[in-house]
Amino acid sequence: MTQSPAQITVDGRARVSATPDEVTFSFQMVETSQEYTPCLQGLADRVHQLRADLMSGSLEVSALRTGHFGIQPRYEFHEGKQTFKGYDARQHLHITIPFDKERLGLVLGVLAHSESQAEFQLTFGLKDDQQQRNEALEEAVLQAREDASILARAAGTRLGALKEIRYGSEPVHRDGGLQVRMSAMKESAPLEVDPGDIHVEARITGTWWVVAD
């Protein structure tokens, strides 16, 4: 009976870091009112104010997009009874701009005084992560081969030719974010934002033949 050639299968992982070059503002606008039409109008007025404020911060508001919009009745429940309390209207908007610390500080300063009272989140990322993805894949393969070589030597053999590499998923972004509430931004203490690096990860599985010495 012919014995199958020995082989080693090893996972390789790698992480590559890069400085973020873009930032996304994700806004949430919420308006409440006892009546339907005033609720919608109040939300529309606040969104209009937000657009005007962003324009004053030298942002292209044409890039501001709506991710969600809705209005629904609001109820309270007490002792089994449902009481109508009015309407909640919500609109989520987002805009992505190149990351520049000075420009970001200007926009945050504008939003600190905005009458829109929008809550927002900042998410930092990379406009193009192809270089980091390539580097992570290369390092993952090198790591897997090094580990396979160590295992082969420990077993009294040596690593042979590559049999296959499996790569079943995209590298994962670990984006940093910062939650900001307008009430926390004081004129006497301007907010400074120093985002951490963006991490791009890759994982592969490599299989090598093992050759006896």
Description:
With 213 residues, the chain is of the alpha+beta class. The protein folds into 2 domains: 1-19 and 128-213, Translation Initiation Factor IF3 (2-Layer Sandwich), CATH 3.30.110.170; 22-125, Protein of unknown function (DUF541), domain 2 (Alpha-Beta Plaits). The protein contains 3 helices and 9 strands. Strands 3-4-2-5-8 form a 5-stranded antiparallel beta sheet. Strands 1, 6, 7 and 9 form a 4-stranded antiparallel beta sheet that branches. A hairpin with a 2-residue loop joins strand 3 and strand 4. The longest helix is centred in the middle third of the chain and has 25 residues, at 130-154. The chain is elongated, with a radius of gyration of 27 Å. The protein starts with 6 loop residues before the first strand and ends with a strand. Residues 179-184 have low confidence and may be disordered.
Put the structure in a nutshell.
This protein is α+β, with helices and mostly antiparallel strands and 213 residues long. The protein is built from 3 helices and 9 strands; from the N terminus they run ββαββαβαββββ.
Are there runs of 5+ residues with pLDDT below 50, and where? 179-184
Order of helices and strands: EEHEEHEHEEEE
Order of neighbouring strands in the sheet with most strands: 3-4-2-5-8
Structural class: alpha+beta
Q: For this entry, what is the oligomeric state of its chains? A: single chain
CATH architecture title of the largest domain: 2-Layer Sandwich
Q: What is the 3D form?
A: elongated
Number of domains: 2
For the record, what is the CATH homologous superfamily label of the largest domain?
A: Protein of unknown function (DUF541), domain 1
Rg for CA atoms: 27 Å
Mean pLDDT: 86
- The CA-CA distance between the termini, in Å, is 22 Å
How many DSSP H or I helices?
A: 3
Please count the beta strands (DSSP E, at least 2 residues each). 9
The largest pleated sheet is described as:
5 strands, antiparallel
At the first level of CATH, what is the class of the largest domain?
Answer: Alpha Beta
Q: What percent of the residues sit in helical stretches (DSSP H or I)?
A: 25-40%
Q: Percent of residues in beta strands?
A: 35-45%
CATH topology-level name of the largest domain = Translation Initiation Factor IF3
